Amino acid sequence: MKVHLEQSQRLRAIEAAKYLRVSRSTLAKWRMAKVGPPHHRCGSRLVYYFVYEIDAWLAACDAAASGHSQ
């Protein structure tokens, strides 16, 4: 799978929260509950997200809400 440069953009947690229009706290709670978009860790403190994974997660949420599976 070839990922375009824009799609492989990495976001810090605060940037991902802004992208999703949720609070940083909500995003952290989703991480702990393992219900949010896929995330990655580098060490114990750095958490980041890929835009294409957030978009795929949103699409899956939309499909589940409308009763369709991908």
From TrEMBL:
Residues 15-61 form the Helix-turn-helix domain. This is Helix-turn-helix domain-containing protein. It comes from the Bacteria. It comes from Bradyrhizobium betae. InterPro entries: DNA-bd_dom_put_sf, HTH_17.
